[in-house]
Design goal:
Largest sheet: 6 strands, mixed
CATH topology of the largest domain: Nucleotidyltransferase, domain 5
Shape: globular
CATH architecture of the largest domain: 2-Layer Sandwich
Structural class: alpha/beta
Number of strands: 16
Strand order of the largest sheet: 2-3-6-7-8-9
Number of helices: 18
Strand content: 15-25%
Helix content: 40-55%
Radius of gyration: 26 Å
């Protein structure tokens, strides 16, 4: 018996067909890998924005059950002015639309699809193309049911909106009429829907590797660990910035381990260095480059790390959608080559905006001279610049801080790479660099182990989701995590210094 294909499973299938098949037929495998705090936050954010967007078309009726076509049909027959989450099912497909709005001029419903994105193709985020596929699936199902709809519209957050007082929904959201673009894709998506339905209805599990075998490490699906279980721990998928064409060539030649990449296989200089480091099992160290880099640092050295929360719906005045809210920092200061480090920290967990408290604490504890050492300067410098823009009295201070920033990631990253280690596995993340260079320090036993969890934890604290005891425990966990970030930088800096001793 063929299964009904949902829009969600169709979109998963387009990304990785085997992943979609496992979700339907072996959900215990699909769900085995727990969602990260970051992924859970994305889901929560999407739900919040869906609900908020209802305010653009108030007083609608919600179809609460995801399979209640009978109630949907009744609401449409009654020409209910606004319907939230109407459900449509054929013998083959099922879909829910976000908002249906009755248009008395055309005597049809207009469809509105709500997305939590502000991004566009121009700024490297989700392309409108992705949403056209989503809406074309819905339109094809509606066509199958002989349901005429008017316009097909996309609702997204306006990245230029700056909150002033209460949220202004008409300014927060942008509405784009994509009817023409969606209609142009209907036939192509129809064919893909039929192919996905045929594939996902089969009871026989797909054989061999999943589609992710031809994707880089960071693009692997939820069940790649299962479908590609024969991949070695350090596979060619971890080669930094490897192009799909190159990866395909390696896979087609049954080369899966980075240790088996031939000497004459064409790679960039950085990729070849990564492969050589892995194959030799020896560190790559550019002593001259490291020395020159260290000489750019001026005492006192201030090792600085921020924790932030990207609120999709601006929490505070002067914020845009998804603009990072800095709520915490950790600071290790070393006054001279002979000095031990001194630690300072700050965290703000009250409900009002942390900007002024954060900036004041930073100005109080940060040395007025010397280098400010961070990991990935684009992030911290961006936060500083935005703080200066929101609070004019701190603009000069934040600019001075940015002028003194030195990025400790530089020796481990990109064209400037001066230090490579087999255990980095092609990553310049401090989560890879630290355990390789400073084995006695680790995030593994921390209550909070990565930034996504830290961000989500703070948001839950200020949203009042924890008891007083749990809140205090979470605050301490945040302090411990951020403290390790700057301590890690101190210890990595000491390793770099030891190279030239």
């Amino acid at each position: 018996m063929k299964k009904i294909l949902s829009k969600t499973n169709f979109l998963i299938c387009l990304d990785c067909a085997t992943n979609a098949w496992l979700k339907i037929h072996k959900p215990e495998i699909y769900k085995k890998k727990q969602l990260s705090s970051f992924e859970l936050n994305i889901i929560d954010t999407g739900n919040q924005i869906d609900e908020l967007a209802h305010g653009l078309f108030p007083n609608g009726v919600l179809v609460e059950s995801r399979d209640d076509t009978e109630f949907t049909n009744k609401l449409m027959a009654d020409k209910t002015p606004v319907i939230y989450q109407p459900v449509f099912t054929t013998e083959t497909y099922i879909t829910a639309s976000d908002i249906f709005v009755w248009n008395s001029d055309t005597n049809t419903y207009d469809l509105y699809e709500v997305k939590s994105s502000t991004a566009s193709e121009e700024d490297g985020g989700r392309k409108t193309e992705d949403y056209l596929i989503d809406m074309a699936f819905q339109k094809n199902v509606l066509n199958d049911l002989c349901i005429q709809v008017g316009t097909l519209n996309l609702i997204r957050l306006n990245k230029e909106y700056i909150r002033t007082g209460d949220i202004n929904l008409k300014e927060l959201f942008l509405i784009e009429n994509l009817t023409e673009q969606v209609n142009e894709k209907l036939e192509d998506i129809r064919q893909k829907m039929e192919g996905a339905h045929e594939l996902l209805s089969k009871e026989t599990e797909p054989h061999g590797h999943c589609d992710c075998i031809l994707k880089g490490r960071n693009s692997h699906c939820t069940t790649s660990w299962y479908s590609n279980s024969d991949l070695p721990e350090y596979s060619v998928h971890a080669i930094a910035r490897i192009h799909k064409k190159k990866l395909t060539e390696l896979v087609d030649n049954n080369i899966f381990s980075i240790h088996d990449v031939p000497d004459d296989f064409e790679l960039s200089d950085n990729q070849r260095r990564q492969v050589n480091t892995a194959q030799s099992g020896k560190e790559y160290i550019d002593k001259k480059g490291i020395l020159e880099f260290l000489e750019t640092m001026k005492y006192p050295l201030a090792f600085l790390d921020y924790e932030t929360y990207p609120s999709a719906i601006p929490k505070y005045n002067r914020y845009r959608p998804y603009q990072q809210i800095p709520f915490q920092f950790s600071l290790h200061v070393i006054e001279s080559p002979e000095s031990e480090s001194v630690h300072y920290d700050f965290i703000y967990t009250d409900q009002d905006c942390p900007d002024e408290y954060f900036s004041d604490a930073l100005k109080k504890h940060l040395p007025k001279t010397g280098s400010v050492i961070v990991w990935n300067q684009k992030f911290e410098q961006g936060i500083n610049k935005q703080l200066g823009e929101r609070i004019s009295e701190y603009k000069d201070f934040m600019q001075d801080v940015n002028n003194r920033v030195v990025d400790l990631m530089i020796p481990f990253f990109g064209k400037t790479t001066m230090y490579d280690h087999p255990e980095f596995k092609g990553s310049a993340s401090i989560k890879y660099v630290l355990p390789a260079l400073v084995p006695h320090l680790s995030y593994k036993n921390m209550h909070i182990q990565e930034g996504g969890t830290a961000s989500d934890t703070w948001n839950r604290i200020v949203s009042g989701e924890y008891s007083e005891d749990d809140k205090n425990m979470k605050i301490q966990a945040l302090k411990d995590y951020c403290h390790l970030d700057t301590l890690a930088m101190v210890e990595i800096w000491r390793v770099l210094r030891s190279v030239n001793i």
